[in-house]
Design brief:
Low-confidence stretches: 48-55
Oligomer: single chain
Strand content: 15-25%
Number of helices: 8
Largest sheet: 12 strands, mixed
Radius of gyration: 28 Å
Shape: elongated
Number of domains: 2
Mean pLDDT: 83
Structural class: alpha+beta
Helix content: 25-40%
Distance between the termini: 62 Å
Length: about 270
């Protein structure tokens, strides 16, 4: 049977069974289309999630205090390890596998503008934090090294914080009373597509100030385990993602030496993004 005869019989069969032929072809086309749509949606969702994760930062590790899991150096197991600003300075000066480090002091304090009031989370950080945490302004400017060194009372607002404190009003240059101290608004962040965060919530909801200013004006109340210089956590950026684990071990060694625990026990809590 030649090709012409095969085609003739095929056309005749389709013509004789129109409904069955239509349903068969529709099923094949729908099946192929469904697979293409699902694959496309999956790739798009995966790409969107990666982009949202990048808004937290790239090649980062967030380090919290914890408790020792083993006895070391004459100290009992289960002893709390609490981070301080001195740890940030040590990592900055000694950890050569770390590109940048910043302390993070977080508090929820009263904020009052001439238009509204709030009690939103505030983060006291070093200026480099803004770069490796992907904070970008849509208005004004970010904090600088001079702001940190001089303890300037300046604040950068997340977009939701701006909308609450300055609803429909210009924010740049305005004064914002924070815990009773006057801060000048120098910047408003771009809105982030951010599914989640660590600590006190997404960046859109936060306020950011120099660490030195926050430690002076809004220190956490001293109580057992909370002392002058205490910080909530450290955020570090590794120099080379290929050496992320080695960089973390370097931090364990420094913190283990200062806080008297065995760095192999890895008692501190670490969360990383890359």
């Amino acid at each position: 049977m030649n090709l012409r005869e095969v085609l003739r019989q095929t056309v005749a069969s389709i013509a004789a069974h129109k409904l069955r032929s239509f349903l068969t072809m529709f099923g094949i086309i729908w099946g192929i289309t469904s697979v293409i749509l699902l694959v496309g949606l999956g790739k798009g969702f995966n790409r969107d999630q990666k982009e949202r994760l990048k808004t937290i930062g790239v090649d980062l590790a967030i380090i919290w205090g914890g408790r020792t899991s083993e006895q070391a150096g004459g100290y009992a197991a289960g002893r709390p390890v609490r981070l301080s600003i001195d740890d940030a300075y040590l990592i900055k000066s000694e950890a050569y596998l770390i590109k940048t480090v910043s302390p993070e002091l977080r508090r929820s304090v009263s904020e009052v503008s001439r238009y509204n009031a709030a009690s939103r989370p505030v983060r006291g950080v070093w200026p480099d934090y803004q770069r490796f945490r992907s904070l970008r302004v849509q208005e004004g400017r970010l904090m600088t090294d001079d702001d940190e060194r001089e303890g300037q009372r300046v604040v950068v607002l997340g977009v939701e914080a701006r909308d609450q404190l300055f609803p429909g009003k210009p924010a740049i240059g305005e004064t914002l009373a924070m815990n009773g101290s006057p801060y000048t608004v120098i910047g408003v962040l771009e809105k982030k597509k951010q599914n989640g965060s660590y600590g006190s919530g997404p960046d859109n909801t936060q306020l950011f100030v120099p660490y030195s200013s926050m430690a002076r004006d809004c220190p956490p109340p001293e109580r057992p385990g909370i002392f002058k210089g205490w910080i909530n956590n450290l955020v570090v950026e590794v120099k080379d993602p290929e050496h992320h684990e080695e960089a973390m071990q370097q931090i364990y060694q420094i913190l283990g030496r200062e806080h008297h625990f065995d760095p192999r026990a890895m008692v501190i809590r670490v969360s990383g993004t890359s």
